[in-house]
């Protein structure tokens, strides 16, 4: 979950894969004031990563999402970009890689391709 279409597109364009082999997509409800509690119903049985903008409206948006997810028992992680002094995930990725983002979120939420097996004949 991100604030704004640009960030949702940025996440989707990375083509990240979760640990079960499903593509991770960026999604948003729009602006910082667009979240409605009922939106969380679409996230049932999904793990959600909240990538919050670093400004006050972004923090409030992330707070509202987190509250809705907690009420429904939906597993999530909340990631802030304030320590890096960037405004949002798109700005973060201007100077960092997708691997940096995966490490920041926690690699255990992503798929890691196993080394190929070599069988001696």
Quick recap:
With 121 residues, the chain is mostly helical.
Give a verbal description of the structure.
By secondary structure, this protein is mainly alpha-helical. The protein has one domain. Helices cover 34% and strands 8% of the residues. It has four helices and two strands, in the order αβαβαα. It has helices spanning 5-13, 56-72, 89-95, 98-105, and strands at residues 48-52, 76-80. The chain has a two-stranded parallel sheet with strand order 1-2. Strand 1 (48-52), helix 2 (56-72) and strand 2 (76-80) form a beta-alpha-beta unit. The longest helix has 17 residues, at 56-72. The chain starts with a helix and ends in a 16-residue tail after the last helix.
Would you spell out the secondary-structure blueprint of this structure?
Blueprint (H helix, E strand, L loop, with lengths): L4 H9 L34 E5 L3 H17 L3 E5 L8 H7 L2 H8 L16
The strands making up the biggest β-sheet line up spatially as 1-2
Note the overall shape.
Answer: globular
How far is it from the N-terminal to the C-terminal residue, by CA?
A: 48 Å
Helix content: 25-40%
Number of helices: 4
Give helix and strand order, one letter per element, not per position: HEHEHH
Q: What is the alpha-carbon Rg in Å? A: 16 Å
Structure class? mainly alpha
Q: Strand portion, in percent? A: 5-15%
User: What number of domains?
Assistant: 1
């Amino acid at each position: 979950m991100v604030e704004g279409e640009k960030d949702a597109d940025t996440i989707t364009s990375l083509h990240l894969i979760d640990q079960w082999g499903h593509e991770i997509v960026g999604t948003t409800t729009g602006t910082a004031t667009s979240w409605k509690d009922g939106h969380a119903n679409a996230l049932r049985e999904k793990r959600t990563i909240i990538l919050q903008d670093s400004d006050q409206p972004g923090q409030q948006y992330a707070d509202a999402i987190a509250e809705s997810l907690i009420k429904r028992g939906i597993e999530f992680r909340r990631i802030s970009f304030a320590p890096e002094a960037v405004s949002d995930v798109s700005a973060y990725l201007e100077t960092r890689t997708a691997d940096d983002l995966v490490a920041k979120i926690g690699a255990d939420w992503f798929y890691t391709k196993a080394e190929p097996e070599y069988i001696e004949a």
